[in-house]
Amino acid sequence: MRVIDAHCDLLSKLTEDLSLDIAAADTASDVNVPRLREGGIALQWFAVYLSQRLGEPRFAQVLKMIDHFYSRVVSQPDVKPVRTRGELEAALVGGKIGAMLSLEGADGLEGDLANLRIAWQLGVRAMGVTWNHANWAADGVVEPRGGGFTAKGKLLLQECMRLGIILDVSHLAEAGFWELHETLRGKPFIASHSNAAAVCAHRRNLSDGQIEAIIRVDGRIGITFVPYFVASERPTIAGVLRHIEHICALGGAAQLGFGSDFDGIDEWVPELATPADYGKLHNELLKYYRASEVDGFLFRNWHSFLQNQLPQ
Ligand SMILES: [Zn+2]
To answer: Per the count of CB atoms within 10 A, which of 40, 83, 140, 295 is most buried?
Structure first.
């Protein structure tokens, strides 16, 4: 079993706890090296997310989190950075845990596209435009006015497209979703950690129209394990499977994967609390889907996407 997971917030925990050591099995984080190994994680995405607790978002904070990524995650003997197709394949062939950087919210770029280019040079390969609130680029899902992109935000989109940064619509308000969809003109984009609103009506989940739009452009949707995005009451692994079934029914069996949000949550779906629990999800999926489909959900769908999207 191999797994690609498109979202976790370990870097936030590393920022808050300078003594956290992810080589150890018993840590204060959901994600650590032994658990990534146990869960068969071939590639984990690590989000740079600037919590409001850090104060005014600054690019210096983004750089510090990228430093934590290199000095405390990628420095582990079993972990290799993934910035290119070549590095992805090398990590897979070598049986290493690949680690990829993403940016959750453009807030820390301070409205300066030079900062986006620097982040790209430092290995950031995907970007969610917003977190839940509005920022200089666009509105997030909880912003009451529900606006789309600002003029500067539109320039940000253009620069992401020019560089080849994968655009992520998780957290983005619906108006921005459709603007992004139109701007990209058929180029694929992703929702790294969102579920289906038809199964669990939460504003962080995607409507059927949004899911179908992502499927049409051959983008990807990372099913997430955030309990209140799985079910409004009593979330379970079976509840996670209902989102998969729904997206499959909309024609998205080849477009869905996972984006757990481990270390970004303080409540968990029972039996889905750390990367080590992917084995339980795998076993549950095998009760309902063919092995090749399960491999698609857990690994191949993200893998084929990244083979196309990452630079050479
Ligand atoms: Zn998030």
So the answer is: 140
Cβ–Cβ under 8 Å, residues 169 and 103: no
| CATH at 69 | 3.20.20.140
Q: How many whole angstroms from 106 Cα to the centroid of ligand 1?
A: 13
Provide the pLDDT for residue 127: 98
pTM of the model: 0.97
Residue found by looking up tokens 């979330």 in the block:
235
pLDDT digits (tens, 9 = 90+) for 276-295: 999 999 999 999 999 999 99
Tell me the CA–centroid distance for residue 2 and ligand 1, in Å.
23
Residue 290 Cα to ligand 1 midpoint, Å, equals 30
CA angle 33, 57, 21 (to 5 degrees): 20
Cα(28)–Cα(153) distance, integer angstroms? 36
**What is the total count of domains within the chain?**
1
Determine the distance separating the centroid of ligand 1 and the alpha carbon of 117, expressed in angstroms.
Answer: 22
Rounded Cα distance between 240 and 281, Å, is 9
Contacts of 120 (CB under 8 A, 6+ apart): 163, 165
Q: Which residue has the tokens 């204060």?
A: 28
Long-range contacts of 276-280 (CB under 8 A, 24+ apart): 276/34, 276/35, 276/38, 276/39, 277/39, 278/1, 278/3, 278/5, 278/39, 278/40, 278/41, 279/1, 279/38, 279/39, 279/40, 280/237
Q: If you measure from the C-alpha of residue 173 to the centroid of ligand 1, how many angstroms do you get, rounded to a whole number?
A: 13
